[in-house]
Design brief:
Structural class of chain A: alpha/beta
Helix content of chain A: 40-55%
Oligomer: homodimer
Largest interface: A-B, 52 and 52 residues
Largest sheet of chain A: 10 strands, mixed
Strand content of chain A: 15-25%
Strand order of the largest sheet of chain A: 5-6-4-1-7-8-9-12-11-10
Chain lengths: ~500, ~500
């Protein structure tokens, strides 16, 4: 395997950056902002959102000036427009919304970002049938994705120019592939460090070449405006280098240094695996709300061994094949009949995208088929819980005997880290080899190929029948590894790398 | 781009191998044999089949002892079993059939080779929904694909052992990925050169990793039993090296030399782009049968400009998106209404595979939609011809104004070479960038991304409205290039490379 020469996953974050950060400001840009704003009778009300980046930033927000730029998502966002917001007692940030017109936003978000780019990056297209990149898709590209990236870029350039200190710009994810070059071109001599982190998988050139050249070239050129480009795994980073080498004429790459050379510039490519906020989750798991849900699950289903999954309702999560594997397990190992239940906790997601609606229908049908085939008057093998209820999800993760994470592709998959962190039964993790989490957890989990229904069935069976001491050792290894690398480390490693590279 | 150091597409085939070949014998192995055998009242009747390999071999058959091993496909094949067969006056070969039991053959052919491997290698799976690699697929692997590969390997080893001269074994295609290592292990000290040519695309590790480890590792180990492994394009060869590097522990690769090192052995990886038998096709195109079909087409449809496609009825050919592009063209450029027709000549293929049946339904529906939307009492925009009729296909290729080849993925695509060879109108080729033929024809063709319906529509329009001299120059460039590299060169290059490497 080709690897960078440097070991990037520094075991100990140096925190040297806290000093050097006093000379810098942070400008973060992402599609969604760190707060949900609601228009209440007493004025605007701010609710902090849960994402990893918000969490990680909280611990820095007292020490550094930060501005967060996001797309307005409601009238309240547009009314607020921009201003300072506090993270409780932990310091605050300057929050600024951009407001593209609804049609441009729809093209950018509902046509290009999701499903087109998301599906390409998660191997989800049924190529003989979709996507059809027709005139309307090109309009969504030109008048939506390109335009919204330009609006973000202009707001960022504005913040950079108004900053007294030299800013570090941290762009987030696949919504903003074009922005870096646009920023670079407008900045001229004003100095700033441009970085971006891609939260989802980056496939190789074979997948990118399915996009028309008029999209893939601007995407690669856009990202080559950066100084530092971060991915979830080393594989993703190598795939980016290979994509650039195959698809961007004029670029050269050095695999062993993780560098792209393009138009007299160097783009450093690194991996910064994201994680969870271990301390907060453990704290939350002790709460009364979680306990109540746990007691409910135990009272209602506790006579069975429990297979659990917790996922957004989304084709990349491979939910229907999970039910097919459970079916195959009951068929091959009938000793589990009336003794094991499969509880699926599913959060509705992007229901405005057609592909997601039809996937919902399919997965409910798949669950129904298993119940029709094996259910008895006393025992319903599959139970699907639909809705967003974090306390209930954490309660379920506390009591699983086996946790199933069988994604077709997944940038990281944080459920695979939350599960072992809160589980109280030395439960077994069955984990897809196509998740970013696999690298960290493979010596504790049972690793499966996501299309391999038979292997998944056998893995579920193995998990349900594993000896206690084997289970305990595996669970311990995973818990310890997750605690060592939590979300603070993730941001910290990025800032350390910026400082180490002298950017 | 990483390239081999040697230039492998030798401009002139050295024919040095004809002398060195007198010291060798050839053993060819492929799923289908070079003759169709029928049981007639007067005994068995032999009909030579049209494939490129048979054609190429004919010119060598007088000079070298050759044996061809194939799977029996009929009672007549099984009755014949083995014996010598003549290629007209051009010398002959020893033909030998292996006869796996029908259930093993069904698993090997209809479950594993098609669709599983074919679909992986052509980016055709709808991963959220298929394939489901359940227990029955694993049985088809173990009791079908593995077993039939073993039966082939045993027959080949038997021929090698009975050969007085040192044999060159030439395995063909994706049906026989496991055979090389099986042969190698059984040969012991008996010397033979093992080679294989893969006629279909070889994708990168991102696609192969979708296969369970228990399949992909044996496939890669199997091929690493070879001395020389040939692909259609340099990209395919590089993808193989990358796949081995990612997925086969213990193997190392040298990209610049096209070599894999595995278990004290060297596997040489090269590209040998396949072509057509230019002379025979030109001869055939002069025949009365072709002329009659041509006159029929001209009489019936000749008042229109003609867009033509000729394809096996198969999802990798992207037939429905071809109709969608025609629809988009008529919408964006209504001046073509009642003046252009789209004639699609489609050959039924693998109709026993479910995925192919449903694709037939979809493409007929897509054609019907265009006719319903734009058709008038005097003009039906799309006409689909179903059935295998080579003379009719060649006639259609003679008279196209635009030939559409928009495959999602295609090892080479020989229609893209037959078209310019026989066309009489300086017709324009619209060609998918995901065909192996693209490398050779891109400076004559209009190259499109296969998912880009809008670009395909604009390419059809451009082809229909192109100036005569531009059309003529493009057509000439393609004709000349195809004539320079015909099917004889393909076999010739392989034998030269064997001799050059001292294998």
């Amino acid at each position: 395997m080709v690897v960078w020469e440097q070991d990037l996953n520094l075991k100990d974050c140096e925190h040297s950056n806290e000093d050097s950060l006093s000379e810098r400001t942070l400008i973060i840009a992402s599609n969604r902002g760190p707060f949900t704003i609601e228009n209440c009778p007493d004025g605007l009300e701010f609710q902090r959102s849960g994402g990893g980046l918000v969490t990680a930033l909280t611990s820095l927000a007292r020490k550094v000036d930060a501005c967060w730029i996001a797309a307005a998502d409601s009238d309240a966002d547009r009314e607020f427009s921009q201003g300072d917001v506090q993270f409780g007692n932990d310091g605050g940030i300057h929050l600024r919304f951009v407001s593209p017109d609804p049609k441009a936003y729809d093209g950018y978000y509902n046509v290009i970002s999701n499903p087109l780019l998301w599906f390409i990056q998660h191997s989800l297209w049924d190529f003989p049938r979709a996507p059809n990149i027709d005139h309307s898709v090109w309009q969504a590209w030109n008048n939506g994705y390109v335009r919204v990236n330009r609006i973000f870029a202009e707001a960022i350039v504005d913040e950079v120019k108004n900053s007294e200190k030299e800013p570090i710009v941290m762009l987030q994810d696949y919504h903003l592939y074009l922005a870096p070059l646009m920023i670079r071109e407008q900045l001229k001599k004003k100095r700033a460090t441009l970085t971006q982190f891609i939260h989802i998988p980056w496939p190789g050139p074979e997948d990118w070449i399915m996009l028309p050249q008029g999209m893939r070239t601007p995407i690669l050129e856009g990202l080559c405006g950066l100084d530092l480009l971060g991915f979830q795994t080393r594989e993703d980073g190598l795939n980016f280098l290979r994509t650039v080498e195959s698809c961007l004429p004029g670029a050269t790459v050095r695999y062993n240094r993780g560098q792209v050379f393009y138009q007299d510039r160097i783009i450093n490519v690194r991996d910064f695996p994201i994680s969870i906020d271990v301390k907060s989750i453990k704290e939350f798991a002790k709460g009364a709300d979680v306990a109540e849900h746990r007691r409910f699950i135990e009272r209602r289903y506790g006579e069975n061994q429990l297979i659990v999954r917790v996922d957004r309702m989304e084709p990349s999560k491979n939910i229907t094949r999970g039910f097919a594997a459970f079916d195959e397990m009951l068929n091959l190992h009938p000793e589990h009949l009336e003794k094991v239940m499969f509880l699926a906790f599913l959060v509705p997601s992007r229901m405005e995208v057609t592909e997601y609606q039809s996937y919902l229908d399919e997965l409910m049908a798949a669950a129904g088929r298993v119940n029709a085939k094996y259910g008895t008057s006393n025992w319903e093998p599959v139970r699907v819980f639909v809705g967003e209820n974090y306390a209930r999800a954490i309660a379920a993760l506390q009591v699983y005997d086996v946790l199933l994470v069988n994604s077709i592709a997944d940038g990281m998959n944080l459920v695979a880290k939350e599960g072992p962190t809160v589980n109280r039964k030395d439960g077994v993790l069955v984990l897809s080899e196509r998740t970013g989490a696999r690298a960290q957890l493979e010596d504790g989990a049972i690793v499966i190929s996501p299309l391999d229904v038979y292997a998944t069935a056998e893995a579920l069976h193995k998990g349900l029948t594993m000896q206690e001491d084997d289970k305990h050792q595996r669970a311990q290894r995973m818990k310890e590894s997750i605690e060592r690398e939590d979300i603070d480390q993730w941001l910290c490693h990025q800032l350390d790398e910026i400082s180490r590279l002298g950017l």
